[in-house]
């Protein structure tokens, strides 16, 4: 089952946001803009004992900025 989220459901989602929701990218799962790295991956990483630098090393397409 696919879910398509309308932009009006995310009124705070701006063009300069670091998060992107697009039904054409990862079936609409929130990802870091310009990548296919799900935001949930970052959330899961932050819940582990690993250093944040390990996340960025593992996902070089995600900018620290």
TrEMBL record:
Which Gene3D superfamilies does the entry mention? Winged helix-like DNA-binding domain superfamily/Winged helix DNA-binding domain (1.10.10.10)
Q: Name one Pfam family in it.
A: DUF433
Give the domain of life: Bacteria
Quote the InterPro entries the UniProt record gives. Answer: DUF433, Homeodomain-like_sf, WH-like_DNA-bd_sf
Protein name per the record: Uncharacterized conserved protein, DUF433 family
Task: Identify the species of origin.
Answer: Candidatus Kentrum sp. SD
């Amino acid at each position: 089952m696919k879910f398509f989220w309308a932009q009006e459901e995310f009124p705070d989602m701006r063009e300069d946001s670091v998060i992107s929701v697009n039904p054409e990218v990862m079936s609409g799962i929130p990802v870091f803009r310009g990548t296919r790295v799900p935001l949930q991956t970052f959330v899961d990483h932050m819940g582990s004992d690993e250093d944040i630098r390990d996340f960025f090393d593992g996902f070089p397409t995600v900018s620290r900025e």
